[in-house]
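#lab-general

N.A. 3:47 PM
ok so I finally got the sequence cleaned up, no stray characters, all 412 residues accounted for. can someone with queue access submit it? mine expired

B.Y. 3:52 PM
send it over

N.A. 3:53 PM
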Amino acid sequence: MTTDAKPLPLGWIIVALLFAAGALNYIDRIMITTMRWSVMAAIPMTDAQFGLLSSVFLWVYGGLSPFAGFLADRFNRSKVIIGSLLAWSAITWLTVYATTFEELMVTRVLLGISTACYLPAALALIADYHRGSTRSFASGIHQAGVSVGHTLAGLGGWMAERNGWAHPFFLFGVIGVVYSLGLCFVLRDPPRPAVTVATSAPQEKLSFVSAIRSLFSSPQYILALLFWGLLGTVGWAISGWAPTYFKEHFHLSQGQAGLYAVSYRQIAAVVGMLLGGFLADRWSRTNPRGRILVPAIGLCFAAAGILAMANTPLTLIGIVGMMIYGLTRTFTDANIMPILCLVCDARYRATGLGVLNAASCLVGGGAIYIGGALRDANVPLGKLYTVSGLSLFACAAILFCLKPVKPAEVAK
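B.Y. 4:20 PM
back already:
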């Protein structure tokens, strides 16, 4: 049975501080996609080159995530977070000086490198402070901050229309630099507890190779990786083509399609992060698999929402289906680090999340491309979403098979 230990002192303050940092993370990385016309008017480039700006960021971010996660396991997590925030904010600030496509590309590569270090360290630090029945809710609050940042990134396009594309990069870059300097005085790691390893063999020296060996020696972690990779494929396919599907299938304007497919879903996602974390914590008090079962059940509802959206001519049902997906799909995001705490060595939690991130990013980019290829082949997007809905049931089935291997360590 899971311990009901209270969070360590400063636990909720750490969550609040990282809520804001997570929001800034997603604002800085996503807002360029909302100001396409302003950027292309100032810096000549083709549509393919503009798309490459996001693709390169994703590839660099995903490829470096395992190594970035190991940094958070090997060194002080707070310092990794502060360094990451300071670096990506400075790069965001310096982006205003880019005058060519090549210079803009360099800033996106640097942004991918610097932001890769943030998420594994942040979620691992939250898990360090919340070792009992508040772990999932605390993680959910942080992930809600990420969703808020995703939503606020739309301000970039609005600000670019009025003050030029460089203005939002300057503003949010300066905000991030100042905030990172402030975190230097308040963000701290808690004392790390001794880790009990279920073996009589001496512990290996902490290294990236030993981390990877440890993670992939666990069948349950491999199952979690399979789950996260499939979910990443489905998630990127759904989000990448949702505005296009709503516009074409329900005969909406571009603005309406974006509002119904993205904004409403993000609002539901914020609620879902909090609800999924709360429910998982409550259930984990009586069932060691509570943090696994809540997102698994949530994915079943998410699948039903996508299937309803894909097979209705009614706009209202489509909107409701997408909101159900946004609400319940995010139960997983609130619990992914708590799940890792159940299935992998406590020394390598951040590395484990980094590997999951890498898998999600690599397959996600492919999923968006496949969606485009299917459109070129005149395959209706409705069929893509039907397959996606059925795939979500497969994700849930994998998660139902996942079992804790170290239930005694959730309090550590």
